[in-house]
Design goal:
- The chain is mainly alpha-helical.
- It folds into two domains: 32 residues; 32 residues.
- 63% of the residues lie in helices and 0% in strands.
- The longest helix is centred in the N-terminal third of the chain and has 23 residues.
- The chain is rod-shaped, with a radius of gyration of 30 Å.
Length: 87
Amino acid sequence: MNVLAVGHAPWWPIFPLFWVLVWAGVATLVVRARRRGLGPWSGRTVQTPQESTTAAAERILAERYARGELGAEEYFERMSVLRSGAL
């Protein structure tokens, strides 16, 4: 007797169950990656390699000086403090 000619095979629920499990696995991986901060869906922006805290402070000072928030004297004074390592 040909099972397929009579009707659905008894194992037909395996295929929908397989795809449900595949999509549940994909969703689980995405959620876990998002919680760990991985991948493009993490909500984090792409960052360049970490710069030193002194370099970051110098960059911020330079930006503030360029915007006119700091005068030349104050800018150079703060830069000398940063470069000397005395805080």
